[in-house]
Amino acid sequence: MTPPPRTPITASPNIYLSGLSMPENGVDFLDPRWRRRWRQALRESTELAHIGRWCHLGLVLGSPAGTRALRLERARIVEDAELPGPDWPERLELYGSQRAWAAFLAPVPPPFHNDLPALDRRQEDFEVRSGREVMVRHLRSPQLVFECARQVGRGV
Q1: Can you list the positions of beta strands (E) in the chain?
Q2: Burial letters for 88-97: b for 16+ Cβ neighbours within 10 Å, e otherwise?
Q3: Would you list the DSSP string of 100-142?
Q4: What is the pTM of this model?
Q5: What is the per-residue pLDDT across 136-147, written as a single tens digit (0 to 9) for each?
């Protein structure tokens, strides 16, 4: 017996983030209100507080709509800028389309949008521009950082 054909799941760029609608550019990490809530979710994560003790990295999030650079120390955002500073630690630079970011940061991401390696390998409109070795070395910490981003979307 063959299984029924799978229906592709797509994420709408018009998702809502706990009363904060997605910004017009469709990339929520560019919205300062959303980032404040993300920072709060990071502070409240007990697992991230434990495993993130050794996580010091620069996270550069890019899209056609703009770029945000976040410096994480002990897995907490300590600096938020348009571009990374010259003294920032190791960097993980991610670049994706509005559609890719909306799907990745959705409260329940569709298949192949749930973690960075899958997104990088399976989606044409998303890439790890630099820092692949940093991603592998710190894999669980960035996963938790983005899980906290999804919690903002779920309203947790």
Answers
A1: 16-17, 20-21, 56-63, 66-73, 76-81, 91-96, 126-130
A2: beebbbbbbb
A3: HHHHHTSSSPPTT-SSHHHHHHH-TTEEEEE-HHHHHHTTHHH
A4: 0.77
A5: 888 888 888 899
